[in-house]
Amino acid sequence: MKSLRIRLPLIAAAILASSLALAVLLAYQLLSLVGQRDLDQALQRELNRFTLALTEYSEEHREPDGVISAETLRNAVNDYYRLNPGSDTYLTVIRLGNSVFVSPAPPAQLTDLSDRLAIPPNAGTGFETLDSQAGTLRAVQAPITVNGETAGSAQVVGALDPISDQTSQSLVWLGIVAAISLVTGGTALSIVITRTLAPLRDLAATAQQTGQLHDLDARVPQPARRDEIGILAEEFNRMLDRLQGAAQAQTDFMARVSHELRTPITIARGHTETLEYSPTTDPRRIQHTAAIVREEIDRIAGLVEDLFALARADQPNFIAPEPVALPQFFRDLTTRAAGLQLTGVNILPPPGVTINADPTRLSQAILNLLRNAAIHTPDGTIITLTAHADAHDVQFIVTDDGPGIPSALLRDITEPYVRGPRPPHHDSTGLGLAVVNEIARAHHGELRITSTPSGTTATISLPRRATPASPA
User: Fold this and answer.
1) How far is the first Cα of the chain from the last one, in angstroms, to the nearest whole number?
2) Does the residue 342 lie in any domain?
3) Which of 117, 150, 167 is the last residue of a domain?
4) Where, by residue number, does the polypeptide cross the bilayer (predicted)?
5) Does residue 462 contact residue 445 with C-beta atoms inside 8 Å?
6) Is 397:454 a contact under the CB 8 Å cutoff?
7) Is 116 domain-assigned?
8) Residues linked to residue 396 through DSSP beta bridges, in sequence order
9) For residue 46, which of 65, 156, 278, 301 is within the disulfide window of CB 3.0 to 4.6 Å?
């Protein structure tokens, strides 16, 4: 397969050659038409001049009875030829009865025809193209009317071959100029296209180098110009920056997930092995060990649940909406939050409305927000969950009075693998807010997070589509 650097100049040269060939052909046709038009105008002027001269002479030599004799006509023709012996462009032919009069000094190409009086007449009046032994002729003819009758005809004839020869010579020169233009233009196009495509070659080489995601450090040299190719190179480098960041984030995430899974498994295994190799009948010790193992299993289950939620986020059955009465939903939510042993969490009574949502996914999203706020704020932080409903939306708002989220993290905080600041004794995989965002999107809603140094607010906004709920 030929590279774009070869194909584009060839295509451009072919288009240029076709355009030049078409231009040459059109110029040839135009020159032919202009040459014939100029000849027609010369023939018509000569015919008009003869007609006027014949009329003036005949009027001056009219018989006393008003009749113009045949002798007068012949004398008028001879007088005209005496004053206008000929031209190198045309030949004037006058036919009066059986007599034929021609210009004394005809064009060189028509001399033989003139001497032999072998000029073919027109079939009618007006312009015609005639074939003759001297080549193709262009002729205009008009009748000579005397005493109300047609006494003969006046014909002016010009040769078309000189025009054709001149046009053909012009065609040769046009062809030479077109060939020179093709060579110089094709060379210039090739140079310009090669230079223009240089960033694309660099881009292709960089794309091949980074195609398997093994080496994301390569970048396309940034061209100085700010055209489409320059913008493409810049955006490609930005894409590589994002890919490199995403790949690094994914690598870090896999390491964190491995750590998250390995840590509770190690803890649970250690306690069960302690029971196995150090048998005891102390109920309190057994209960303590069971609680630790259960806590670590719950930790693994939460991680798996978040991973599973992200994996299914784009599937149509990710959520199963049903009518959800907010008062009962909040009571269940309070019970589940208490089971997570989150301190400093206040859940305020919601408005008495029913919404169409997936209670399991919605509960997962809100608990993730509460857990996220508890993990990423210092002890003693007050976390509040409220709900508001208006004519269009229902909003679930989690606020805290913690130190806030750094502005550098706020833009991407809902992306997978992104983690905010947290105390050292906590760990996070950076999936919580990503799961919340996907659940909100699946409900045709959105997650908005705002933060200042005095606190953070996370709002899940869902379309209402609600009806009043029965009193609690």
Assistant:
1) 74
2) yes
3) 167
4) 171-193
5) yes
6) no
7) yes
8) 387, 460
9) 156
Dihedral angle sign, alpha carbons of residues 253, 258, 262, 264: positive
pLDDT for the residue 400: 94
Report whether pLDDT(320) > 60.
Answer: yes
| Other residues' Cβ atoms within 10 Å of the Cβ of residue 174 | 18
Q: Is residue 218 part of a domain?
A: no
pTM here is 0.46
pLDDT of the residue at 340: 75
Where does residue 127 rank: exposed (0-12), middle (13-18), buried (19+ CB within 10 A)? middle
Q: Alpha-carbon distance 112 to 109, whole Å?
A: 7
Residue type, 390: D
Question: How many whole angstroms separate alpha carbon 384 and alpha carbon 380?
Answer: 13
CA distances 416 to 303, 310, 363, 430, 449, Å, are 13, 9, 20, 6, 15
Using CA atoms in the order 296, 300, 306, 307, what is the torsion angle rounded to 10 degrees?
160
| 388 and 305 part of one domain | no
CATH number of the domain encompassing residue 63: 3.30.450
Domain of 296, CATH number, reads 1.10.287.130
Residue 135 belongs to what domain range?
Answer: 4-167
In whole angstroms, give the CA distance from residue 134 to residue 110. 7
